[in-house]
Amino acid sequence: MYNLLRNTLLVLALCVAFSANAQDAESIIENVEEALKASSSKELTKHLHSKVEIKLDGVRKEYSVNQAEIVLKKFFQQHPADSFEFIHDGDNDSGARIYAIGTYKSASGKHRVVIRAKEYNKVYKVYRLEFTKDR
């Protein structure tokens, strides 16, 4: 009887752990989407890894979080969002890396946005962010 109870509790704990992990993956996508809708570099940088690769219209560079905030702030000032929406997301087979693809619309046009995030110490952080202007 004791073993059955112990095993049941173990299975329950594992289910909760996997559920929390899935929620973290979903919540980072939702949080990044809200930050992009608001054109908020400050909110967006809360979800970036300490080193993040940013690609703006073909130019790819690696930045610290502080540098990334400055670069993103400049981008958002030049292209304030009219709207933003992720249209597709997914993960690799293990679920440790996730991605999302969306459309960022501003008065100056549309950008395709791709984010890539992975788990660092049980928290998902964006390690790559790409903005490509639709031609």
Short summary:
The protein has 135 residues and is an alpha+beta fold.
- Give Rg in angstroms: 18 Å
Cross-sheet strand order for the largest sheet: 2-1-6-5-4-3
Mean pLDDT equals 85
Tell me the series of helices and strands, N- to C-terminal: HHEEHEEEE
- Total E-strand runs: 6
Which word captures the global form?
globular
Q: Estimate the strand proportion.
A: 35-45%
Outline the fold blueprint.
Blueprint: H1 2-37, H2 41-45, E1 48-56, E2 59-64, H3 65-78, E3 81-91, E4 97-106, E5 109-120, E6 123-133
Parallel strand pairs: 1-6
Antiparallel strand pairs: 1-2, 3-4, 4-5, 5-6
Task: Characterise this structure.
The longest helix has 36 residues, at 2-37. The termini are far apart. The chain is globular, with a radius of gyration of 18 Å. It is α+β, with helices and mostly antiparallel strands and 135 residues long. A hairpin with a 2-residue loop joins strand 5 and strand 6. The protein has 3 helices and 6 strands, in the order H-H-E-E-H-E-E-E-E. The protein has helices at residues 2-37, 41-45, 65-78; strands at 48-56, 59-64, 81-91, 97-106, 109-120, 123-133. A 6-stranded mixed sheet has the order 2-1-6-5-4-3, with helices on one face.
